[in-house]
Automatic annotation (TrEMBL):
Phylogenetic placement of the source organism: Bacteria, Bacillati, Actinomycetota, Actinomycetes, Kitasatosporales
Protein name: Serine hydrolase domain-containing protein
Keyword presence, Aminoacyl-tRNA synthetase: no
Keywords: Hydrolase, Signal
Chain residue ranges for the region called Disordered: 239-274
Species this protein is from: Streptomyces thioluteus
Pfam families noted in UniProt: Beta-lactamase (PF00144)
Residue span, Beta-lactamase-related domain: 62-360
């Protein structure tokens, strides 16, 4: 049985119809009004979530959408506007750039490859990418694939480089938005800096880790990480609204527009009087396997619910993915392999990932059993408070 048939068999056996999983972490607005848009759930069931969407949009991004699924019920809410020029309202099926939610897809493929005997989580990075992780104290012989996936490698994150930030997150973006960034170029930026710490000593989020994980997938399979995600995840799960665009700059419809203050950081507080820029079109190679994916709320709920319910990974690999390391100073959050666990104020535990890319901030979260899932997106990257939306949906406050 080939790997794709194997994936389909697991989907039929345990996950078709069970769509579950999670995520969590990471202006000008029209009057916001979150409304029930679709589905069989009662609008009154999600009053706290609707109010939380409204509150985020009041002080930050132009608009937001959320889709929650519990059992067979689906609810969708929206707030604000999807397009400042036309006033178009957000739609539940709108596609958006999901940023670092890409990491869960990449980690899932790596774990499938481990189950097939094509690689080991304990392989060194240098085994697959000889000589790539070198310089200024970085040493690929001391770093494992597992440490890439759980961010304990110590490798410097290229998105912290000041030159990169000026081009990608400052007003330099307007001149460089269509530049192509190869993985090799990105890794060279990271290697020009010292590591954050010795491998395994601490936890620190690094986008470079997942650029390297994408490169490992290519070496292990002979195909790009995008190809493997499409064949192993998107097609079997019928995620028809999800794409890995490569260097294509446009977001397929239906979709709104996305906006940034271009402060020089990926996200942060906006100041009164800061101009707002339309950043919808960009070459997503600047994020690559660390954050290029485009999707919508329903597809992301489907992916995470299938993943957590065992439809994409063998039990041993799912256990590896959900074995977490602590994050210093944040006792309520820990990180597995491309997956976060968060304990909410009401003692509910949710799993998932967040994502941020120019003009777009997203979260997907689900309970461990996959019964209750939530995905939301805001189309601006300033003053976005994600946690209250999650708390509202899962804790009712």
């Amino acid at each position: 049985m080939n790997k794709h048939a194997h994936t389909a068999r697991r989907l039929r056996a345990g996950a078709v119809g069970v769509i579950a999983t999670a995520v969590l972490a990471t202006g000008f607005t029209m009057p916001a009004s979150a409304t029930s848009a679709t589905g069989t759930g009662s609008a009154s069931d999600h009053r706290a979530t609707r109010a939380a969407l409204d509150e985020v949009v009041k002080g930050g991004p132009p608009g937001g959408i959320a889709v929650a699924e519990r059992g067979h019920d689906t609810w969708a809410g929206r707030a604000g506007t999807a397009d400042l020029a036309t006033g178009r309202q957000p739609r539940a099926d709108d596609r958006f750039r999901a940023g670092s939610i890409t990491k869960t897809f990449v980690a899932t493929v790596v774990l499938q490859l481990e189950a097939e005997g094509k690689l080991s989580l304990d392989d060194t990075v240098d085994h697959w990418l000889p000589g790539v992780v070198r310089g200024n104290g970085h040493d690929g012989n001391r770093i494992t694939v597992r440490q890439l996936l759980n961010h304990t490698s110590g490798i410097y994150s290229y998105t912290d480089d000041e030159g990169f930030k000026r081009k990608a997150f400052g007003t330099g973006f307007l001149r460089h938005r269509y530049d192509t960034w190869t993985p090799e170029r990105i890794v060279r930026i990271a290697m020009s800096h010292r590591p954050n710490f010795d491998p395994g000593d601490e936890w620190r989020y690094s986008d470079t880790n997942y650029i390297l994980a994408g490169m490992v997938i290519r070496k292990a399979t002979g195909h790009s990480y995008a190809h493997e995600i499409e064949q192993r995840i998107l097609r079997p799960l019928h995620m028809d609204s999800t794409t890995l665009p490569g260097t294509r700059s446009r977001v397929p419809g239906p979709s709104g527009r996305t906006y940034s203050k271009l402060t020089g950081e990926l996200s942060g507080p906006g100041k009164p009087g800061d101009p707002t820029y339309d950043v919808t079109d960009l070459n997503p190679s600047l994020a690559g396997s660390a954050g290029e994916i485009i999707s919508n709320s329903r597809d992301l709920n489907r992916f995470y619910r299938a993943l957590l319910s065992g439809g994409l990974l063998e039990p041993r690999q799912l256990e590896e993915m959900t074995t977490t390391v602590p994050i210093r100073g944040v006792p309520s959050v820990s990180y597995g392999l491309g997956l976060m666990k968060v304990k909410l104020s009401c003692d509910v535990e949710v799993w998932g990932h967040n994502g941020g890319i120019q003009g777009s901030v997203s979260d997907t979260v689900t309970t461990a059993d996959g019964d209750h899932a939530l995905t939301f997106n805001f189309n601006g990257d300033w003053n976005v408070q994600q946690q209250p939306v999650v708390e509202a949906e899962f804790c009712g406050r």
